[in-house]
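Deviation from plan, reported transparently: zinc ion complex.
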Amino acid sequence: MRHKALFKFVVKVCGLVMALIGLSIFSVQAIDLLSDLMRRETYGYYQIRSLFYCVPYIGVGTYLCFWGNWIADKAFPAGPKCCPACGYQARGNISGVCSECGSVLPPEFKEANHE
Ligand SMILES: [Zn+2]
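Because the crystal trials were delayed, the predicted structure below was used instead.
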Protein backbone atom coordinates (compact mmCIF):
# COMPACT_ATOMS: atom_id res chain seq x y z
CA MET A 1 0.00 0.00 0.00
CA ARG A 2 1.30 3.44 -0.97
CA HIS A 3 2.07 6.06 1.70
CA LYS A 4 -0.73 8.39 0.65
CA ALA A 5 -3.26 5.54 0.39
CA LEU A 6 -2.26 4.34 3.87
CA PHE A 7 -2.57 7.91 5.22
CA LYS A 8 -6.06 8.25 3.69
CA PHE A 9 -7.07 4.91 5.21
CA VAL A 10 -5.87 5.96 8.69
CA VAL A 11 -7.74 9.28 8.38
CA LYS A 12 -10.93 7.42 7.37
CA VAL A 13 -10.60 4.98 10.28
CA CYS A 14 -10.06 7.89 12.72
CA GLY A 15 -13.17 9.59 11.31
CA LEU A 16 -15.20 6.40 11.61
CA VAL A 17 -14.09 5.92 15.25
CA MET A 18 -14.98 9.55 16.07
CA ALA A 19 -18.41 9.21 14.43
CA LEU A 20 -19.06 5.98 16.36
CA ILE A 21 -18.05 7.70 19.63
CA GLY A 22 -20.50 10.49 18.75
CA LEU A 23 -23.29 8.02 18.03
CA SER A 24 -22.66 6.19 21.31
CA ILE A 25 -22.74 9.51 23.23
CA PHE A 26 -26.03 10.39 21.51
CA SER A 27 -27.61 7.00 22.21
CA VAL A 28 -26.59 7.04 25.89
CA GLN A 29 -27.96 10.57 26.35
CA ALA A 30 -31.16 9.76 24.43
CA ILE A 31 -31.80 6.59 26.48
CA ASP A 32 -31.13 8.55 29.68
CA LEU A 33 -33.60 11.26 28.63
CA LEU A 34 -36.26 8.76 27.51
CA SER A 35 -36.00 6.74 30.72
CA ASP A 36 -36.47 9.93 32.76
CA LEU A 37 -39.49 10.85 30.62
CA MET A 38 -41.06 7.40 31.03
CA ARG A 39 -40.57 7.52 34.81
CA ARG A 40 -42.14 10.99 34.66
CA GLU A 41 -39.18 12.44 36.49
CA THR A 42 -38.26 16.02 36.06
CA TYR A 43 -35.74 16.71 33.37
CA GLY A 44 -33.99 19.91 32.81
CA TYR A 45 -32.63 21.90 29.95
CA TYR A 46 -29.20 20.37 30.60
CA GLN A 47 -30.49 16.92 29.59
CA ILE A 48 -31.77 18.12 26.23
CA ARG A 49 -28.56 20.10 25.77
CA SER A 50 -26.50 16.97 26.47
CA LEU A 51 -28.05 15.37 23.35
CA PHE A 52 -25.94 17.78 21.30
CA TYR A 53 -22.61 16.81 22.89
CA CYS A 54 -22.28 14.25 20.10
CA VAL A 55 -22.49 16.87 17.30
CA PRO A 56 -18.75 17.77 17.17
CA TYR A 57 -17.77 14.07 17.20
CA ILE A 58 -20.21 13.12 14.45
CA GLY A 59 -19.39 16.27 12.45
CA VAL A 60 -15.61 15.93 12.53
CA GLY A 61 -15.82 12.15 12.18
CA THR A 62 -18.06 12.36 9.12
CA TYR A 63 -15.79 14.99 7.58
CA LEU A 64 -12.68 12.86 8.11
CA CYS A 65 -14.45 9.77 6.85
CA PHE A 66 -15.87 11.19 3.61
CA TRP A 67 -13.87 14.35 2.82
CA GLY A 68 -10.53 13.56 4.50
CA ASN A 69 -8.76 13.52 1.11
CA TRP A 70 -8.15 17.26 1.54
CA ILE A 71 -5.91 16.48 4.55
CA ALA A 72 -4.10 13.76 2.58
CA ASP A 73 -3.53 16.19 -0.31
CA LYS A 74 -2.04 18.72 2.14
CA ALA A 75 0.16 16.06 3.77
CA PHE A 76 1.23 14.60 0.39
CA PRO A 77 1.12 17.50 -2.08
CA ALA A 78 0.69 16.40 -5.69
CA GLY A 79 2.14 18.95 -8.07
CA PRO A 80 3.57 18.62 -11.59
CA LYS A 81 6.92 17.61 -10.05
CA CYS A 82 5.54 15.47 -7.21
CA CYS A 83 4.59 11.79 -7.29
CA PRO A 84 0.76 11.59 -7.08
CA ALA A 85 0.98 8.51 -4.86
CA CYS A 86 3.42 9.69 -2.19
CA GLY A 87 4.16 13.39 -2.90
CA TYR A 88 7.89 12.74 -3.40
CA GLN A 89 9.70 15.45 -5.37
CA ALA A 90 10.53 13.50 -8.53
CA ARG A 91 12.04 16.33 -10.59
CA GLY A 92 14.22 15.04 -13.38
CA ASN A 93 12.88 11.50 -13.20
CA ILE A 94 13.63 9.61 -16.44
CA SER A 95 12.62 6.05 -15.51
CA GLY A 96 8.89 6.84 -15.20
CA VAL A 97 8.83 5.05 -11.82
CA CYS A 98 8.88 6.91 -8.50
CA SER A 99 12.17 6.22 -6.72
CA GLU A 100 10.50 6.74 -3.32
CA CYS A 101 7.44 4.49 -3.48
CA GLY A 102 7.86 2.60 -6.76
CA SER A 103 4.53 3.63 -8.30
CA VAL A 104 4.37 4.22 -12.06
CA LEU A 105 4.27 7.96 -12.82
CA PRO A 106 1.57 9.16 -15.27
CA PRO A 107 2.82 9.88 -18.83
CA GLU A 108 2.12 13.63 -18.61
CA PHE A 109 4.45 13.70 -15.63
CA LYS A 110 7.55 13.13 -17.78
CA GLU A 111 6.57 15.85 -20.23
CA ALA A 112 6.05 18.28 -17.35
CA ASN A 113 9.65 17.71 -16.29
CA HIS A 114 11.14 18.49 -19.69
CA GLU A 115 11.91 22.18 -19.24
ZN1 LIG B 1 5.98 8.02 -5.11
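The chain has five helices and no strands. We consider this an acceptable substitute for the interim report.
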